[in-house]
Amino acid sequence: MLCALVLALGGLGAGCDNGPAGATAPTEADKPRPVRLAPATAGTLPVTVTATGTLAAEDQVVLNTKVAGRLTELPVDLGSVVKQGEVIAVLDLTDFALRVEQAETALLQARARLGLPADVAGDDLRTEEASLVRQAKAVLEQARLNRGRMLELQRDGIIAKAELDTAEADYRVAEARYNEALEEVRSRAALVAERRTQLRIAEQQLADATLRAPFDGAVRERHLSVGGYLDVGAAVVTIVKMHPLRLRLAVPEREATRVGVGQAVQVRVEGEQGIATGTVARVSPAVDEATRTVMIEAEVPNRNDELRPGSFATGEIVIDPDAPAILVPASAVVTFAGVSKVLAVADGKVVEKRVRTGRRAGDTVEVLDGVTAGEPLIVEPGNLTAGQAVSAGSS
To answer: What's the pLDDT at 7?
Structure first.
């Protein structure tokens, strides 16, 4: 009746409540919001030092000519992959081959004067075996015997003293000619050695007219074209060694004390999708006073030539691969205005906890403080706020 009276009086009431006085119907906002929980876990995460640097070739060389000549062959170009010993360039070989023939002829003449047969490979000859020495030695022996006979005849008074003096003089002359023959043979032997050296020089020049790759690599630059005349020392091509590469990193002084030879380095190259793994090979003993950094060099394998020398790269030096850490899902961390927090559940309501994050690995983040291992956290909290009622489910 009271409700009907109110309606009759002009609708002064918005409605009627048949329930207890002061009670209201529950709304959608008052219902607990379902959430997924995932516990913080105790695990391991590598401790790394990150620095940026440049990939450089282990070796780089500009091939120069040792001899002058006209370039007739240049089978490589920019980007050509070459193997050690592969022909890079060839000069006109005609003149060099003629010089070899000339040197061979001169050597044969010198050997003939020394008395060496053409079918004997070696140049060694005992001085006493040379025909010139044997002849002089025979004359000397005859003069010695003649002098001995004359000496006996003169003692017996058969010949005059003048004949003995003549025999003595003949012996001295024969002895001098024998010594002269020895010197002549030594001189001819020296000439053979000189001609042999000249032949080797001519052969070396013939070999130097063909440029070969000193190591496996790739052509970085070609400086000349076929047909040009090259002076001694002219640059032909530049070759870089592609495997391994050398990563040079400038590590801050405060972190360089933890870096040592043999530590692993994870390399990310600008524009490349994958991650390469290298090893610290060299650590500078000095600190750069201008930048307060220490230069670190790491060797990075590049067997498939996937990386390029000169590329900008980021290197993460692994200091401790199994450092203990408290890990939480990255989707459980909310960061706003530089403040990071996670949301937990207590008595069916949301509780905010400020945390300090550290390293990140994939979908997990290290929490340095604010959370303990095993504590459940809300995954993907969205717009949840502290005090909001939730119904929790495991992730």
So the answer is: 39
C-alpha distances out from residue 290 to 113, 254, 286, Å? 72, 15, 12
β-bridge pairing 33-39 and 390-394: parallel
Structure confidence at residue 280 (pLDDT): 97
- 91, two tokens: 């000069």
DSSP string covering 74-111, please?
----TT-EE-TT-EEEEE--HHHHHHHHHHHHHHHHHH
Beta-bridged to residue 198, according to DSSP, are none
Give start and end residues of each alpha helix (H) in the chain.
2-8, 94-114, 131-155, 161-208, 253-256
CB-CB contact of 205 with 57 (8 Å): no
* Closest C-alpha to 373, from 331, 330, 324: 324
DSSP class of residue 16?
Answer: -
- What pLDDT, on the 0 to 100 scale, is given for residue 12? 41
The pLDDT value recorded for residue 205 is 97
Q: Token pair of 78, please?
A: 């920019």
What tokens appear for 196 in the block? 């042999």
d(CA 178, CA 137): 6
CA 111 to CA 195: how far, in whole Å? 9
- Read off φ and ψ for residue 110, nearest 5 degrees: -65, -40
Q: Which of 44, 86, 32 is nearest to 327 (CA)?
A: 44
Residue with the two structure tokens 């009276």: 5
